[in-house]
Amino acid sequence: MFNYLLRRIYLLCITAFVLTLIAFTIEHLTVHTHFRENTFTHYLNYISAILQGDFGYSIIDKKPILATGLIAFSSTLELCLFAFIIACIVGVPLGIFAGLYRNNGLDYTIMSLALIGLALPVFWVAIIFSVLPNAFGWAMPIDGNISPIYEIPVVSGFLLIDTLLVTQQYQFDAFLNHMIHLILPSSVLAIFLMSEIIRLTRHAITMVMRSNYIKAAHTKGLTRRQIVFRHVLKNALPPIIHQLRLQLSTIISFAMVIEIVFSYQGAGIWLFDSIQQGDYLVLSTAILIISGFILFSSIIIDLLLVFISPTKRKSLYADQ
Amino acid sequence: MSADKLTDYHLLMRFILTYISLIFLSGCYQSESTLTNSLIYCADKAPSSFNPQISHDIATLDATTHQLYNRLVKIDPISQRFVADIATHWKVNENKTRYTFFLREDVNFHDTSFFSPTRKLNADDVIFSFKRMLSTQHPYHSVNSDSDNYLYNHPFSNLVSDVVKIDDHTIRFLLNKPDATLLANLAAHYSVIHSQQYATQLLQAGHPEQIDFKPIGTGPYQFKANSSKNIIRYQSHKSPWQLPANIENLIFDITKNSTKRYAKLLSGECDIITNPASSQVKHISKNSEVSLSSQPTGNIALVAFNTKKSPFDSAINRHALSNSIHLDTILEAVFFDTALATNTLLAEHSWAYNPRITKISYSPAHSLQELTDNKFNFSQSLRIIAPVKSSIFNPNFYKTAELIQSNWLDIGVRSEIVLLRPSELDIALQSGNYDVYLTGSSPYIKDPDNLFRPLLSCNASALEGNSSYWCDTKMQSILDDTLLEISFIQRVKNYYQLQALLQAQRVYLPIAHLLRFDVFNDNITGIKIDPLTGINFHFTKKNEPIDMREEQ
Fold first, then answer.
1. Alpha helix ranges (H) inside B75-231
2. What ipTM did this prediction achieve?
3. How far A131 CA sits from the closest chain B CA (Å)?
């Protein structure tokens, strides 16, 4: 286990080094002002500043970029999480149905819908979703994270938590308002995620259903539902999680595009506004924050997989 | 169908039903429009500062003039007369060169997290506010202001020689010469009163620039915060000297996209929006759930002919070429009927508007004849310049230019369109290297001199407004004489004469007078919109939405 972790951390260090080089190049080419320093000294200074948490100050609001970036990115994570929950609630059952009724009318319908979801450009769906509620007469908010009426002090950076800390002032109104603001952007993101989850679940279920132990369970006289809940789901889950891990960066990029359409104050809007106003230092910081998160989370997902799937445990000892 | 499959289908149906019922839960959501102590105004632009003395754009005026500040006098919206605001009354001497103002003694400044006043408003505050504009020696004179553009931005500099304190609540304006526009200038947006005590505190702290970004005034709302997320917060004045505002929290939400602003109004995220897309105005006016307010502004879209160069140095050519432009098409295609067709520079609602001047008629055949008779050189190509970006004068300069180009091509006159960025435009205007310039004019005050002088005075440069390079001694003397004229009737007569002369010379071709549009939900009442000084939320009231009242 320890060796496995160590191997992962080695890999992390190398990737992090490459990332700092990219971030440094951007910083060096765009906002570098100390022309007397040579590039190597500048890189060392840059790395030592980063290690001390000093990513510089924004030229727009004169606030530390790291703090602003982390708050913005936590909003993006909230959006991804909310979308993931919606996608799982809808996508997993549909994927199971599609897998159980493979090559059936139900399967074709579900898969067609999933393919449409994958084929639609995400920004277009976002624009359509911002218009649709009004067309149906629903008063759904289409702009921002929360109504400006609520003044929420930043404590954790996650609005879902911070709104719960001000219940004395606003009761649960601010929390509910934020949840409602999350519905449309996360639904758009969920469409893409859902398509992915349906495809992956269907494939995994089909594979598991063909295995001998399921046939054995049938012959034992277990009902279909018992087989699915006891054996199929448990064994279909690891490949789904593994595949979703690879989709993490795509999901975050999609979330950032959706944020711009819905003016959702996350990393997407933060980057977009900063670049528009020529605050290029934000670019290198954003690269480090986002890619750092993806690196760490992929390690955590790997560890999670090891814990939930006995078959994966062999990777602890395998020579990879 | 097997029993297993049957139960699966039941499960699926149960699933679908649960999702549908979840969607209906969104009906439980009550939008922000139900909170009656907070008002969200969705503006199209962020203010450039919080001081209308240094920023004259309408976004700044909306965010400041009536919300944060008061002036010595103001214009009564109904009678259009000057009435007291911070001043209780005023006296004028016989020569009309000394105006003495008597101030109220109960005016409180805002008490905020960054400033707590220890005294009420007095003559020092008024003198500080005006001296900042007038005196180059004033410590705040150059703070946050662009020195190159200084005279242009400050009409007081040529008008007032000094402002003196008589006692704590009496001040006197000494004029260079009698000038009928003083009161109009004092009621203008740039005559707001700041706190001298706050300015001194900032100067001691070494941050004088904050005076225009963390403002302190006497208006019905006080500044609370301006976040980088395009949200500006105000709260009602804690110890108001006038009637308190009905709204406790006033929020400016800057939403740049006009379609999104309208969508936010419909979803209840905004209570009031400004400047809807010209193309949507017709649709909005048909929506019974919202009210559309349209106000004529002094802003005018116009075509300036460069009279220093051939062919526009000839009045016949100017007439002929302007009569070959079909203004109705421009109005329909560019402005989507959000502007009023016009024949003159002065808006019809102005007291000096001359209704008897000749109208501009579209007659291309006649224009062609006139040009041929005047030996117009049809082989030359006219250079039409226009700004790249749309402005308050014109939502689409390029389309306007294209329509003019096509009209002229119909009578055999060729032209090229050149779109320029602001810095390039300044260079082109200074060099005079153009024949036609698509522009506009937005007067600060209702006095006609404020419109005519920048456009027609020999002393005004092309950058200041005289992009036709026009200089005519007769018009100049009318302009100067009218400024000194005390008799109102004579002033009206003079402006009538000026407009007749202008029409005969056709120095500019007016395209349209623009309207200001604001849209608000039906539960909002008491909004006052002054096209010159901005929106006023002092007496705005937000009632509960009609459907909620019915439920109760």
1. 123-134, 150-153, 156-159, 182-186, 196-205
2. 0.80
3. 8
Q: Could you tell me how far CA B381 lies from the centroid of its own chain?
A: 35
The architecture that CATH gives domain B35-47+219-289+522-552 is 3-Layer(aba) Sandwich (3.40)
Domains of chain A and CATH, by start: 1-54+284-320 (no CATH), 63-279 (1.10.3720.10)
Query: Looking at domain B297-514, which CATH architecture does it have?
Result: Roll (3.10)
- Domain(s) labelled CATH 3.90.76.10 in chain B stretch across 70-214
Residue spans in chain B of domains classed CATH 3.40.190.10 = 35-47+219-289+522-552
Largest CA distance in chain B: 107
Q: Specify the CATH architecture of the domain B70-214.
A: Alpha-Beta Complex (3.90)
Chain A residues with at least one Cβ partner in B under 8 Å: 60-61, 63, 90, 93, 97, 100, 106, 130-131, 133-134, 138-144, 147-149, 151, 176-177, 180, 183, 223-225, 263, 265
Helix (H, G, I), strand (E, B) or coil at B246: coil
Give the separation between CA B259 and CA B271, rounded to whole angstroms.
Answer: 15
Mutate to test the interface with B, among A57, A82, A131, A143 (most CBs of B within 10 A): A143
Q: Which residues, 6+ apart, have CB-to-CB distance to B299 below 8 Å?
A: B392, B393, B440, B441, B442, B513, B514, B531
Identify the pLDDT of residue B78: 78
**pTM of the predicted model as reported, rounded to 2 decimal places:** 0.81
**A316 Cβ contact partners less than 8 Å away, ≥ 6 residues apart:** A1, A3, A4, A306
Residue pLDDT, tens place only, A243-265: 888 888 888 999 999 999 998 98
Residues of chain A with Cβ-Cβ distance to B547 below 8 Å are none
Which residue in B266, B231, B240, B230 sits closest to B68, CA to CA? Answer: B240
Q: What is the pLDDT of residues B19-58, one digit of tens each?
A: 666 666 555 555 555 577 899 999 988 898 898 888 877 8
Cβ neighbour number for residue B396 with a 10 Å cutoff: 17
Is B267 in contact with A141 (Cβ distance < 8 A)? yes
